[in-house]
Design brief:
The complex is a heterotrimer of chains A (317), B (307) and C (347). By secondary structure, chain A is mainly α. Chain A has helices at 2-29, 45-55, 61-73, 87-122, 127-141, 144-158, 179-212, 215-222, 227-256, 258-264, 269-278, 282-310. The chains are: A mainly alpha (317), B mainly alpha (307), C alpha/beta (347).
Chain lengths: 317, 307, 347
């Protein structure tokens, strides 16, 4: 098992390096000079040159990359242009808020998705199956930012039950686990949970159908095992894949939450990215994307390892 | 093939008639796509979805000539009229412009920025994937490992990162989304091609002395493009949502052009005044997206022919 | 098409059509990260000749390298070392470029479905080869139809069909027609009838015999079914773990085998005739791993005649009768094996 983890780590290293190259290139993809946002409009050529040298932009790209990478590896993602604070601390605060929201959403989505998936897989082609399929098609087809708006329209604007935006009553800031803050989380979390719900329901349905049609289930039934016993077997066989999908969905939500966070003004990474883009705060944009992508890579790795540990059928050799 | 002016039906050359055996006796066979088409026609869900898509596309194309009002001209006095208004059937927006006309007009840009990236990615991704799959070896390793890097980004994040760095605009949004879908299509194309490459009929074609290019064109392409195409159609829905999402964030289409995502954004302020009108553009995105998804599902199950 | 004298016959009737000389193919496999590099010795020094107009059978268990040998001959896989001569010319040399060799040698694969393009009509599949070689489409289609008729498929009914609309036997007939479309001299049949029902198999075998007469063909017939080989082959080569262990006239080899492996193969064959039952023990277990084959005679761990000399010495492929050669120490004079015949005294 240890050698398996090591080998996965070795395999993931080039991917992580590639991700860092893409993030590094983002800044240079941007039209115009990366300095244009910091420089005063009337800057002399001399000022520009000295600034260029100060930021290291006068060196060739590969050299710039390795200098940047060296800083990143030491935990230095640069300084935010708009706030003047280190990017690491800005991103760090936002990631915590995003992670809380995405985790809750994944949990909700997983619970309902698994339920729908199991029901649909067990009762193939029944009315329940059709309903579950409809739910999953809905989940993957609905523009989630619009769903968020609809939620706000129903529960805030019309019914007035829940707050429409923000993470807490004190305006913005950080989410805390108390009743007031919980009310702020309900709408964004529910909206976000629809995405993994559809995917998880679809996968579990296929998985359960597959397992039930396999010979060993027939053998178990023939042996006189109770339906509950069969169910336990199905759960045991479906669990590794289900957990893997849950992990991946968490990663997708964390990276894909920008639209929902914008709708609900949730102070997470999405919100941060949004403001970084519109203030052309490229170091902040770069840092946030690097952190999110690396998080996704790490999550993939963990899922891979956990799935392998749980599933005896996957070769570890 | 060259030089024949007579139409060739079901692979039978009518010119054969004079010399060869009687052509009228030949049993014409339904080809693969014919079979898929027949199955698809019998699928009510897929057909409904296809009809909806066709109607929306037709309306979008004809919009400049059929909109009841000018989608650009507003009136401060007639802002946010409700749905069912005498003049404004679907109400009016925050600048007093007719919603129905703007929705019809908005379909043009929304469909364009949503479908174009998938078409471009289909062309580029298939090229990369088929090349990697057929040539194999080092080229495959290099191409596919590069693709893996892009898979390390959730697609929404990658789209926003690229268009955020490139800046707002229709072209930039199309470029970003194309970059998001190329790796996904290339990966599917690679795995399908690798499968087909190991089929005996490809070996048989090699044995007949055909060049690699001929084998690719005649033997491989027809068998790999189908599955890749089906996969690509399943991406249209995501692409529509993402493209409008970029506009929703202010990264795509710029005002005053009507586009569903952008309209949804500008109407956000109106949710307390006229919530139903505010939600309309999103409903349009949803209907198109779910139609493409259902049609793609139908196409996929229609293509699962053989055991 | 069929001619008494083939102008392509350059070496004369005595020149073997195909000479396979010390053919070797090892497939490298990776054994994990930092693991030792290993090779599968799929084909490990194979020698035989195919004479003009004969049918040579290759038999052996699955994994013995018979299909790999076929693919090496066809150039679908590159061989590591050894030589392939076609009618006396080295394949791929200037005198015989790969392209012109391939026009004279065709192959029929085992899986009749996988060997036909599912998106092409049957006649288009057959016409593809001639078209590649510059035959105009109309003529190529005509040739395809006449070949379909020749293999027993009415062109009016079958020419425009797709592979999934045909039965396994019909598809294999199409594959045979496709192989004949380029007017080859040598046809390699790689388990070509193995996937068919017994009744269909017999029909296809008879068809193959007829075609061989009409088109002046030479067959390399690869199979694991000794009954089929006995029926169709003039000579037979028995392969074990990448090597030929016995080769000779089919009647001799299959009636009185010299190699214990051949004998074991024959005895593992079901027979309804009580007189035909042999005393030899049928084969036990699976063949050893070709990554790390046994030392000396590779068959020794499963051999009923195993003696201490067997793991120590590699038996050469030596003659035991006219045209009959075997690689077994028990048949080799002076090998040290107790059953070995006495050393022949030079006359």
């Amino acid at each position: 098992m240890l050698s398996f983890i090591l080998r996965r780590l070795v395999a993931v290293t080039p991917v992580a390096l590639g991700v860092s190259v893409v993030c590094f290139m983002l800044v240079h993809l941007a039209p115009g000079d990366p300095l244009s946002a910091v420089l005063p409009v009337d800057a002399t050529q001399e000022t520009i040159d000295s600034m260029r040298a100060a930021y290291g932009y006068d060196k060739p790209l590969p050299v710039q990359y390795f200098i940047w990478l060296w800083h990143v590896l030491q935990g230095d993602l640069g300084t935010s242009i708009s706030s003047g604070r280190p990017v690491v601390s800005e991103v760090g605060r936002a990631v915590v808020n995003s992670l809380i929201l995405a985790s809750v959403a994944t949990l909700i989505g997983f619970t309902f998705g698994t339920f729908f998936g199991f029901v649909a897989g067990y009762f193939r082609d029944s009315l329940l199956d059709r309903l579950a399929s409809a739910v999953s098609v809905f989940g993957v087809s609905v523009p989630h930012y619009w769903l968020g708006m609809v939620m706000v329209i129903i529960f805030s604007a019309t019914l007035g039950w829940l707050p429409p935006t923000g993470a807490g009553p004190d305006g913005s800031g950080n989410w805390r686990p108390d009743f007031e803050h919980l009310r702020y989380m309900i709408l964004p979390a529910l909206t976000m949970s629809v995405i993994p719900m559809g995917v998880i329901a679809r996968t579990i349905r296929a998985l359960v159908g597959d397992i039930l049609s396999q010979d060993f289930v027939g053998a178990l039934r023939a042996k006189g095992l109770s339906e509950f016993g069969v169910f336990k077997h199905v759960v045991k066989n479906a669990a590794p894949t289900a957990l893997a999908i849950m992990g991946l969905q968490l990663g997708y939500l964390l990276g894909g939450s920008i639209l929902i966070e914008t709708v609900f003004a949730w102070p997470g990474t999405g919100f941060l990215l949004n403001s970084a883009i519109f203030q052309r705060d490229l170091p902040l944009l770069q840092g946030a994307i690097l952190v999110l992508a690396m998080f996704f890579v790490a999550l993939n790795l963990i899922v891979d390892v956990v799935q392998t540990a749980l599933d005896p059928r996957i070769e570890r050799g | 093939m060259a030089g024949t002016t007579t139409p060739v039906t079901a692979g039978i050359d009518p010119a054969m008639g004079a010399a060869g055996p009687k052509p009228e006796a030949f049993v014409a066979s339904v080809g693969f796509w014919g079979g898929v088409g027949r199955k698809l026609v019998r699928d009510p869900v897929a057909m409904t979805a296809a009809a909806i898509i066709l109607i929306i596309v037709a309306v979008a194309i004809l919009a400049p000539w059929i909109t009841p009002m000018d989608p650009y001209r507003g009136s401060m006095l007639k802002r946010l009229k409700p749905i069912g208004d005498a003049t404004y059937i679907l109400g009016s927006d925050e600048l007093g412009r007719d919603m129905l006309s703007r929705l019809m007009m908005g379909g043009r840009l929304s469909l364009f920025i949503g479908v174009t990236p998938v078409i471009l990615a289909f062309i580029i991704g298939s090229g990369i994937g088929i090349l990697a799959g057929y040539v194999g070896g080092w080229l495959n390793v290099i191409l596919m490992r590069t693709i893996d890097v892009f898979f390390a980004f959730p697609s929404v994040l990658l789209a926003i990162a690229l268009s955020g760095a490139l800046g707002a605009g229709v072209l930039n949004s199309i470029v970003s989304l194309t970059c998001v879908f190329v790796p996904q299509i290339a990966r599917v194309a690679e795995s399908v091609t690798t499968q087909i490459r190991s089929r005996d009929y490809v070996d048989a074609a090699k044995l007949s002395g055909a060049s690699t290019l001929t084998i690719l064109r005649v033997q491989v392409l027809g068998n790999v493009l189908g599955p890749i195409f089906v996969y690509a159609t399943s991406l249209i829905s995501v692409s529509m949502i993402l493209a409008s999402g970029l506009s929703f964030l202010g990264l795509g289409v710029k005002p005053p052009e009507p586009e569903w995502g952008l309209m949804l954004n500008t109407l956000r302020t109106a949710i307390y005044v006229n919530p139903l009108v505010a939600a309309l553009p999103g409903l349009a995105i949803f209907i198109v997206s779910i139609s493409f998804n259902l049609f793609s599902d139908g196409l996929r199950s229609a293509m699962e022919v053989k055991s | 098409m069929s001619a008494a004298i083939d102008i392509r016959d350059r070496g004369g009737p005595a020149q073997p059509l195909l000479t396979v000389d010390k053919l070797i193919k090892h497939f490298p496999i990776k054994k994990g990260l930092g693991g030792k590099k290993a090779v599968v010795r799929a084909v490990d020094g194979v020698d035989f000749e195919i004479l003009k107009g004969e049918t040579l059978g290759i038999v052996g268990e699955s994994g013995c390298g018979k299909s790999t040998t076929a693919k090496l001959i066809m150039g679908l896989i590159e061989h590591d070392s050894g030589q392939l001569l076609f009618d006396g010319e080295k394949i791929g040399s200037r005198a015989l470029p790969m392209r012109s060799f391939r026009a004279q040698t065709q192959m029929v694969f085992q899986d009749s479905y996988s060997s036909l393009n599912p998106r092409m009509t049957v006649e288009a599949s057959i016409a593809f080869g001639p078209q590649v070689h510059g035959v105009p489409k109309r003529q190529a289609i005509e040739r395809a139809r006449s070949l379909l008729a020749r293999v027993g498929l009415e062109p009016t009914r079958f020419a425009a069909r797709y592979p999934h609309e045909l039965s396994g036997g019909q598809r294999q007939r199409v594959n045979i027609a496709r192989a004949l479309a380029l007017e080859p001299r040598l046809v390699v049949l790689d388990e070509a009838v193995s996937a068919l029902d017994k009744s269909v198999e017999a029909q296809v075998l008879n068809l193959l015999l007829d075609l061989k007469q009409d088109f002046n063909l030479t067959y390399l017939f690869i199979s694991h079914d000794l009954n089929v080989v006995r029926f169709i082959c003039d000579r037979v080569a028995v392969m074990y773990l990448g090597q030929v262990v016995e080769i000779g006239p089919a009647d001799t080899v299959l009636a009185s085998p010299s190699h214990p492996y051949t004998a074991a193969l024959l005895s593992s064959m079901p027979s309804l005739d009580p007189d035909n039952r042999t005393e030899v023990a049928p084969l036990a277990g699976d063949p050893p791993n070709p990554i790390d084959p046994p030392s000396g005679c590779r068959f020794h761990p499963r051999c009923s005649l195993m003696e201490p000399v067997c793991p120590a010495n590699v038996p050469p492929l030596d003659g035991v009768g006219e045209l009959h050669r075997v690689a077994c120490l028990a048949r080799q004079p002076g090998s040290g094996h107790s059953l070995a015949p006495a050393q022949q005294v030079a006359a």
